[in-house]
Amino acid sequence: MSQFFNEKARLVTESIDGLQRAAGNPATTTLDGYPHIKVICRTDHKSSRVALISGGGSGHEPSHAGYVGKGMLTAAVCGEVFASPSFDAVLAAILAVTGKAGCVLIVPNYTGDRLNFGLAAERARGLGKKVEMVIVGDDIAIPGLAQPRGVAGVLFVHKIAGYLAEKGASLEVVAAAARSVAAKVVSLGISLSSCTLPGAGREDRVPPGQAELGLGIHGEPGVDQIDFRGAKAVAEILCERLFKQVGKASSYALLLNNLGSTTLLEMGVLANEFLSAASGRKIKLVIGPGLLVTSLDMHGFSASLLPLSRDYAAALAAPVAPAAWPGARVPGKLRRWKLPTGIKSKSEKPSGNASMEQFLSKCCNLLIAMETELNTLDAKVGDGDTGSTVATGARSLKAHITTLPLANPARLLSSLSDLLGKSMGGSSGVLLAIMFAAASQAIESGETWARALQQGLARMKEIGGAKTGDRTMIDALEPALAALASGKPLAIAAVIAREAAEATASMQRAGAGRSTYVSAAKLTGIPDPGAVAVAKLLEGLAAV
Amino acid sequence: MSQFFNEKARLVTESIDGLQRAAGNPATTTLDGYPHIKVICRTDHKSSRVALISGGGSGHEPSHAGYVGKGMLTAAVCGEVFASPSFDAVLAAILAVTGKAGCVLIVPNYTGDRLNFGLAAERARGLGKKVEMVIVGDDIAIPGLAQPRGVAGVLFVHKIAGYLAEKGASLEVVAAAARSVAAKVVSLGISLSSCTLPGAGREDRVPPGQAELGLGIHGEPGVDQIDFRGAKAVAEILCERLFKQVGKASSYALLLNNLGSTTLLEMGVLANEFLSAASGRKIKLVIGPGLLVTSLDMHGFSASLLPLSRDYAAALAAPVAPAAWPGARVPGKLRRWKLPTGIKSKSEKPSGNASMEQFLSKCCNLLIAMETELNTLDAKVGDGDTGSTVATGARSLKAHITTLPLANPARLLSSLSDLLGKSMGGSSGVLLAIMFAAASQAIESGETWARALQQGLARMKEIGGAKTGDRTMIDALEPALAALASGKPLAIAAVIAREAAEATASMQRAGAGRSTYVSAAKLTGIPDPGAVAVAKLLEGLAAV
After folding, report:
1. How far does Cα B116 stand from its chain's mean position?
2. Does B165 have pLDDT greater than 90?
């Protein structure tokens, strides 16, 4: 399975560089230790402040490099994909950013990370640095595990410790707060697929109709495979397990983390379930949904809960520099504005006009009579339904004719627009609706029928995008309306329309509509059915 | 293929509601028209300002609902997945937010959207609203197409028109600016997969090793299938085509859009290619990489270019309320800080100490001699390499013995830490390195050898996570060191270690290391190889 990178050996470093370039952030830098040492640091860190350093294998972006910046991490150490960074990379990060206030290492709990961060901490202490290490194991997937994994809940530690460090709290205070948050946060993930390892591919492990509960963020299999019964059921299972494990509190912060390829549509549905559930009432801050601690392109998500205190809430809500932090928000109550009046067209009062009624009836009869002929023509250059579409619109008009405001031209045109928009179907119905609506406004403002229809046609061309010469009904309609507008009689307009319709037979390329997909060879010699319909209608009307 | 939603009919509305809840934004609302009318509006829009309305089918999240807020859209109209909203939904949006200043409809160019927005515009005009419509067709995939598709470049229109509208510009000015941006922006996408339609699945259309160039954001097939030759080649193709089509300018804005499931790792590599290419020097603003106008979970991306003027740059850089807008940044130059000194352990000056040399040699010989026995034991309860790991460390130490600072206990322990961390391999090497580094600091501060090693062991336990009783070398090492620290002779410590090692044979569950994966039945009766190694070493040392 292809992926957008060059060589696997340069995947992580090139990605870090690209994100650094795109971030355009003058307050971060990398250390000059590629390929082995991949460290991103703040350049605006003060030595009087406690430094916060985290990291781990890559493949969890934006973690952790994305969280380097004022108010969160001072440095992030990146390993290769799903592999711990070496201890000397961690040591480089510690030495690069740790001042007299010391540093706290925030380590998501995986053996390799714990050991390499641990050894680096010892070395740094040997070099005179004050180093505290906090291990975060927030995953509750495996009950009673002595060494639970560190997953997305680590972000609560980054954020709260980062807030305190920025405020100038001492090493002891920052480390104690980080440990306290780490001890309180619980997380659980679920997925519908594994993830694609760069250069290796994806294991099809989750059978259709199943979901993996309690998977790891390195693609480790879940603890259970369960029947997948939709978003609501999934949210209920996660809520139940998380609220059972988390310490009792009156309010909680929820972090909703997209593990990779879950669409924002799905994440929205999940957020709706979590926040509208009974237990959701206790959620007073929400972080995400978003790509926060990913597992490459895994189709899954995780939820993390932290019992809230006033201090935690303030720390979580404080603004920070890193763009990857989505902010912590007080969940909103759903608001609904009433629909504006005016969406439904006012049903116009019918009004009589015998000659108009007769004229419209005649139009309808003529159009209905063309059905087969137009369909046959359209079958050669399109999808064979022009006649049916035209006849459907005409039948609907004929059925409603006595309900129309026949005595008022503007209202009549507006009603025709309504009727055809609703009943004719296809693009043509909407296009004619646009034409009649625009014509209604024109006639209202004092134009003649012919000029009003010309203006309607202009609007239809603008919206529909077809031009003269594009092999559409416009080719016949436009010159015919121009003739009528200049005072020529209907019979002349009919002749002009017919000539124009015949001329479409030699147009070798359609510029709009279904005929755009038909080759020149097949089009040649066949006139456009829409243009023919216009010609036939005018001929019929002229032949009194 | 399962996805995280409930019923398809409620997918879009539940998702909108979930994102509204999670956004916690008091300045947006939905209209009460579900399921048919799905409109998100600003509640803080002033009628003296031009309203901006966009929309289209869903499946492109965060477009367009995510961009509703101060400085961007006034309202977004959402259709079902990949289907245009109906004209009355658009009309509802227009009527809900359009004041005396009028509104501009920003419509990505697809027939259904153009027609439904167009008809809604006519109806709104008929109801007395001032409405302008701007169609955006930024896709350059199909050369010479009269009606190019609207893709991610539409965001440039949202942002620049939004900036002007917020500033109080007139309808004419805002509409003209929107048209001008729409005429200038060019976009092109490429993908390695199609997308998964909710409830329908994913078409496996792109063969391995191929990429689709010029695909549509509704999963329409690309214009070309090309050989995929990595990120650099892809960026070069896109750059070449985009710069060929775009108007000449001295600087450009680049928008890098993740179409769905491309990992942030990959997007970083792509950003690196675009921004480090020769043409990249002309890119003075970058938006993304990010999920901006997606195509569900498509594994692909698009790039959009806009020639920059000073006005455009100011408009793009202005802050806005919608969280989905990632900001426009001046691409950063890569910075590299020099690696801090102190990462490489100083190579200590060798110093002689005959008895220490003899003691260490003896340790090494004893450990090397155990190789086969320990491997055999480990084969029963682990992966059969304990003996080899121990012997590897011992051989390395033996080879370096005369290069060590044998006369200085603290430096010697620190050098042992270095040596074992580098040469022994596996977790055990790092764990011993941690122990000796911590012991070095303890002995430096005046502790005895035995007490210093005890402190080292405590640190190793803390970092490694194994406790007494977890069936590891700790079970023998801890009581033996305690005996030595309390002044007992080596022979007694050896007896204690042996007893403790034998006792591990009855521990039915390993709490750390590979034996955690082995069943109690297999463990019973077999002592832990690490604990045995400690006992045998002490026995050997005691048996002078």
Report:
1. 39
2. yes
What is the pLDDT averaged over residues B111-117? 93
CA distance A215 to B214: 36
pLDDT per position as a tens digit, B460-472: 999 988 889 999 9
Cβ–Cβ contacts within 10 Å for residue B204, how many? 9
Instruction: Give the per-residue pLDDT at B517.
Output: 63
Choose the mutation target among A87, A127, A263 for the interface with B, i.e. most B CBs under 10 Å. Answer: A263
Q: Does B25 touch chain A (CB under 8 A)?
A: yes
Distance of alpha carbon B302 from alpha carbon B308, whole angstroms: 19
Average pLDDT over residues B305-317: 98
Q: What is the pLDDT of residue A216?
A: 82
B36 annotated active-site: no
Residue A544 C-alpha, separation from nearest chain B C-alpha, in angstroms: 34
- Residue pointed to by tokens 């790039």: B303
Count of CA atoms in the C-beta half-sphere (13 A) of A270: 29
- Given a cut of 80, whether residue B525 has pLDDT beyond it is yes
Nearest to B288 among A22, A111, A272 (CB): A22
Give per-residue pLDDT as tens, B239-270.
Answer: 999 999 999 999 999 999 999 999 999 999 99
Q: Which of A22, A271, A470 sits opposite B19 (nearest CB)?
A: A271
Considering only the beta carbons, identify the residue of B59, B271, B343 that sits closest to A92.
B343
Contact A110, A56 (CB under 8 A): yes
Residue B384: the pLDDT is 85
CB contact under 8 A, B115 and A4: no
The residue from A60, A158, A218, A299 that is catalytic is A218
In SS3 terms, A406-432 reads as CCCHHHHHHHHHHHHHHHCCHHHHHHH
Instruction: Provide, as residue numbers in chain A, all residues whose Cβ is less than 8 Å from the Cβ of B340.
Output: 31, 92, 95-96
- Based on its alpha-carbon atoms, the radius of gyration of chain A, rounded to whole angstroms, reads 35
Task: Say yes or no: B261 contacts chain A, CB-CB below 8 A.
Answer: yes
3-class state of residue B500 by DSSP: helix
Residue to mutate among B15, B145, B254, B265, with most A CBs inside 10 A, is: B265
Size of interface A-B (CB pairs under 8 A): 429
Of A88, A275, A334, the CB nearest to B343: A88
pLDDT, position A143: 80
What is the band of B544 on the pLDDT scale with cuts at 50, 70, 90? low
Distance CA A230, CA A235 (A): 9
Q: How many CB atoms lie within 10 A of CB B410?
A: 17
Taking an 8 Å cut-off on Cβ atoms, the answer to whether A33 and B339 are in contact is yes
Write the ipTM: 0.91
For residue A302, the cross-strand partners are A189, A257
DSSP B98: -
| Amino acid symbol at B49 | R
The stretches in chain A having pLDDT less than 50 are none
Residue A224 CA neighbour count, 13 Å, CB half: 14
Q: Record the tokens describing residue B355, joined without a space.
A: 């008895």
Distances (CA, A) of A531 to A36, A379, A475, B167: 71, 15, 6, 47
The pLDDT, as a whole number, for residue A514 is 62
Q: What was the pLDDT predicted at B154?
A: 98
Within an 8 Å CB–CB cutoff, is residue B74 touching chain A? no
A405 contacts on B by Cβ (under 8 Å): none
Q: Is B13's Cβ below 8 Å from some Cβ in A? A: no
Determine contact, residues A461/A453, Cβ cutoff 8 Å.
no
Gap between the Cα atoms of B522 and B508, Å rounded: 9
DSSP A185-234: -EEEEEESS--EETTTEE---S-TTEEEES--TTSPPPSEEEE--HHHHH
Quote the pLDDT of residue B81: 93
Q: Which residue among the candidates B60, B64, B158, B218 is catalytic per the annotation? A: B218
Residues in chain A: 544
Asked if residue B511 has pLDDT above 90, the reply is no
Please report the pLDDT score of residue B117 as a whole number: 97
